[in-house]
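Fill-in record for Dehydrogenase.
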Amino acid sequence: MADLRAGLLGIGQMGRHHARVLREVDGIELVGIADPGGDAHGVGGSLSILPDVEALIDLGLDIAIVAVPTRFHEDAALKLAAAGVHTLVEKPIAHSVESGLRMVEAFGAAGLIGAVGHIERFNPALQELRRRIEAGDIGAVYQIATRRQGPFPARIADVGVAKDLASHDVDLTAWVAQSAYSTVFGQIALKSGRPHEDMVIASGCLKNGVIVNHVVNWLSPMKERVAIVTGELGTFVADTSTGDLTFYANGTFPLEWESVTAFRGVSEGDVTRYAFPKREPLRVELEAFRDAVLGLPSDVVTMEQGLKTLAVVEGVTESARTGQSVSF
């Protein structure tokens, strides 16, 4: 079978990595790149940089990656759907739920694969975490807490930290726990003088009863990407910056120090940091997209799933505005 002809729209901080990986994935041929801002990172190679999505479509594409700012996702995706091109858009799916819904409907009506680049699902630490939860290594899951903090990225200008970063944590939490959100309560802060929020704290509950909490900001001088899952047998800590997964087991030996026993709900047990293959998440994500287009089994994140994540994120900001929790 001939390689899938791929087009890439946008070669900024994320698009440049797509350009590299698309050239390396078996079964895909990168035939065109478009970016109205030109080739700032020098990734075009032998390909001329086209001005817009229409020029990409004229090349005759099978698949496309949309890695432009969020506010442009809908326009590009609808044009690609109308042209019969299977498309993966970077997260979040769109700047609003209404926009995302139009995208879902367009790809559904055309019978095309529409996907969203929620790359954390393909992080090796989180994939190993989900596998071990499914295997019962932690028993019943009680709580999932995430922290995603770091300096402000100057390239983000069209959305706040909720849609840009918190969408990662909302999606990975529902995916790891295999349960949708039931309720969410949010608090936000605007400290940098920009029109969008730069700090978020969100708490809530999944439909399976797991309680969740997310701390997200653009105003920390340190970078942190951590997911903590606590259950009846211990706690998993996944560091998605390094791809490491550590398990803190509940102790199996009774404590004989009465004051410590009274203070602690559980005792400290063995600590294990697992060894497992660590493939580049973007490569695994694009392979999943390729497989979905070819009709093969795939874990690609669909636009329908991306839309559910966006609805929860908008619920966080709505809750912050009203002071009331939002139910789904």
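KEY FINDING: The mean pLDDT is 94.
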